[in-house]
Amino acid sequence: MINSFIQEVQEGSEVLTDGESVEKTLSIIELITSGGTAGMLIILLLFVLLIMATYIYFERLFAIKAASKIDNNFMNQIKDHVSNGKIDSAQMLCAQVNSPVSRLISKGITRIGKPLEDINTAIENAGRLEIYGLEKNVSMLATISGAAPMIGFLGTVIGMILAIFELANAGGTIQMDVLASGLYTAMTTTVAGLIVGIVAYIAYNHLVVKTNKVVYQMEANSLEFLDHLNEPI
């Protein structure tokens, strides 16, 4: 009896060894297409969101970098022109630089001669417009970072519903090939949604940091300009 048991174990191990020798591979394309129509539609939607997030990120990144470039000697030249009464020269210099800082200073120059509070208000109003321009479409990244995982979880729910439906129609016999389509939909959409959400979240926070640096630069130069106007002659 013991000998027969050992023989059965050995035969089973041989079958297992033979089974392990057969390695099944699954490419990304096959993984996506195995999820059925619902899975492919959700993956396609997530791919479109990923393209949108990538485009917004790089478009805003280049725009913010361009906005942050300003000559270190810019404010010194502005103060020299204002001190010497060359208001037109100061305006021309601001027009040549063409940056958020130069536009704020230009707005302040146009108010020279009025009370300092009015100049400060004009600069602040112009600053709000500049910040709005810098943050253009950045909120879309925040939306994508939150919506993508939810779309992925929607695919998970759909996949599980399909798997349970197939299981109910299987007559009580559990077969993995019957459940495979629904499980593929559930897993692939979840992973895809999380990937898109993480990418969009990182991109959003990076742009926020870059924008804050430009805003700080605008505030610092505006205060320097106002302090210069407030200096006694």
TrEMBL record:
Q: Which InterPro entries match?
A: ExbB/TolQ_transport (IPR050790), MotA_ExbB_proton_chnl (IPR002898)
One matching Pfam family: MotA_ExbB
Swiss-Prot/TrEMBL keywords: Cell membrane, Membrane, Protein transport, Transmembrane, Transmembrane helix, Transport
One BP annotation, GO: protein import
Question: Can the keyword Membrane be found in this entry's annotation?
Answer: yes
- Tell me where it resides: Cell membrane; Membrane
Keyword Cell membrane tagged: yes
GO cellular component terms given for this protein: plasma membrane
Q: What is its main location?
A: membrane
Q: Where is the MotA/TolQ/ExbB proton channel domain?
A: 98-219
Membrane topology of the entry: Multi-pass membrane protein
Q: Where are the transmembrane segments?
A: 38-58, 138-164, 184-204
Q: Which family does it belong to?
A: Belongs to the exbB/tolQ family.
What name does this protein carry?
A: Biopolymer transporter ExbB
Upper lineage: Bacteria, Pseudomonadati, Bacteroidota, Flavobacteriia, Flavobacteriales
